[in-house]
Design goal:
By secondary structure, this protein is mainly alpha-helical. It is built from 23 helices and no strands. The mean pLDDT is 87.
């Protein structure tokens, strides 16, 4: 029954909206495209088929019904930000394939992991180092950081169940909340972030560069990364404090890895080159996507990655399909006047409220509505443009609204064990019970709200964002 309802509900909702009277001030084409868009989003949530498959179907429906021309439906695939994320997925594959990600984590643990708190910081910092070139936070947390964390916990005799609280439960929750923060810090640290940047350009006409994002996020992000492990250390403390024994073991394993391989050196060089060129794009004039594809080209020429690695990167190509579709639909909704119309309708509801209060209310609603979502990208697709538009119509400075909602599009992931890709991987390790996960997640969400809207707002004031 559930299988059939996952089909019936999106189709029924889309058909009902399609045949409703077209609201005053809208063209029928805009209303019909919204019907397709709404049905697509519900499909993303209920998933009768994978998101990529549903995306293709939505393009076909748009074309068959003459709501959009086929060229308009496919226009999103030419968006440069989408190709940036594909290239960054390939960077991620390079980190894992060459072993450079593991080497970085082992180096950090060897350097500072003498007690459980320092060990947690070593893991979080490793995540931070990898995050600018790893847009799949699932690959970063689940493919690199988690296996190392699990092996560390097991080495201390901390397993799911009676010994979970020895150290494993604390480390699992810390790397998860740390991944939440690092996902918000760079345009290339979570797949949905480039979608946000593209939506900003398509819906509001503003350009957010890789450097703009990183500079705005760096101060609240670093403060949050310092504070979060410490907060968890006090409210969910590990029983084991001294970790010098395992630190020595990791140092031995690091030594056994030997000297850096040619592939690792190339991967490291490409990573550093990309960071430098991304950060200086406003001076060099190089587009972030150009830089990323340059990096991929170097990896291919040096055979660090093979063409088979490229074609087998399912996450990147899947992202290309659904993100390209969403970009096309969102862009056309704005072009046809639906988004400005809807923003005005909702904005009228907060008319008369001082913009700071309206902004805070909208951020809270946007953040905690993620209890209803099992995907950050679906949340972004369904709500980002509307909430930013309403905030701007209420008087919030545009750059403040666009970037704040961008950051909280990631920070809301702290809440549940199904909130994003890394969530079920770490939760299913069995170290942290569900009710505890939700309790710690809510506390983490409050900590992030205080830091990002407190320290962050002061930093954004210095940057002139408001």
């Amino acid at each position: 029954m559930k299988k059939y309802m996952s089909w019936i509900i999106p189709i029924l909702v889309g058909v009902i909206i399609w045949f409703m009277p077209v609201p005053e001030g809208l063209k029928p084409q805009a209303w019909h495209l919204f019907a397709i868009f709404a049905g697509t989003i519900l499909g993303f949530i209920l998933q009768p088929l994978p998101i990529g498959a549903l995306s293709i179907i939505s393009i076909v429906i748009s074309a068959v019904t003459n709501t959009l021309k086929i060229g308009e439906g496919l226009a999103g695939f030419a968006n440069t930000a989408i190709w940036l994320i594909v290239a960054a997925f390939l960077f991620s594959r390079g980190f894992i394939k060459t072993g450079l990600g593991k080497r970085i984590a082992y180096t950090m643990i060897t350097a500072v992991g003498s007690n459980s708190l320092k060990l947690s910081y070593a893991l979080v910092i490793s995540d931070l180092i990898l995050s600018p070139a790893t847009p799949s936070n699932t690959a970063r947390a689940g493919g690199v950081i988690y296996p190392i964390t699990k092996s560390l916990a097991s080495a201390f005799g901390s397993e799911p169940g009676d010994t979970a609280r020895k150290i494993g439960a604390y480390l699992i929750q810390t790397i998860y909340q740390g991944n939440t923060i690092t996902s918000a810090m760079f345009m290339t640290s979570m797949a949905g972030n480039t979608l946000v940047a593209s939506l900003i350009a398509a819906s509001f006409g503003y350009t957010i560069t890789w450097g703009d994002w990183a500079i705005a996020a760096i101060v609240p992000g670093l403060v949050a990364l310092i504070v979060m492990p410490l907060i968890l250390y006090f409210i969910y403390p590990p029983e084991l404090k001294d970790t010098r024994e395992i630190q020595a073991h990791i140092a031995k394993e690091l030594k056994e890895l030997g000297a850096m391989s040619f592939a690792e050196k190339v991967m490291l060089g490409v990573f550093i080159l990309s960071l430098v060129l991304w950060a200086t794009g406003q001076f060099t004039g190089l587009n972030a996507t150009t830089v990323a594809l340059l990096g991929v080209s170097i990896l291919l020429v040096t055979k660090v990655l093979t063409w088979s690695d490229v074609t087998e990167e399912k996450g990147g190509w899947d992202t290309l399909i659904w993100m390209g579709t969403m970009m096309a639909l969102a862009s056309q909704l704005n072009k046809l006047g639906f988004i400005p119309w809807f923003a005005k309708i909702v904005g009228d509801q907060v008319a008369g409220i001082e913009w700071i209060m309206a902004f805070m209310i909208l951020i809270l609603i946007y953040t905690y509505s993620h209890y209803l979502f099992a995907s950050l990208t679906v949340h972004i697709t369904a709500m980002y443009v509307v909430f930013v538009a309403v905030a701007i119509s209420a008087g919030t400075p545009p750059y403040l609204a666009m970037l704040a909602f961008a950051f909280f599009s990631n920070l809301c992931m702290s809440l549940t064990h199904y909130a994003a890709g890394p969530s079920p991987i770490l939760f299913n390790s069995g170290y942290v019970p569900q009710n505890t996960w939700w309790r710690l997640g809510f506390i983490a969400s409050v900590v992030n709200l205080v830091i990002w809207l407190g320290v962050g707002s002061m930093w954004w004031k210095v940057l002139g964002l408001w």
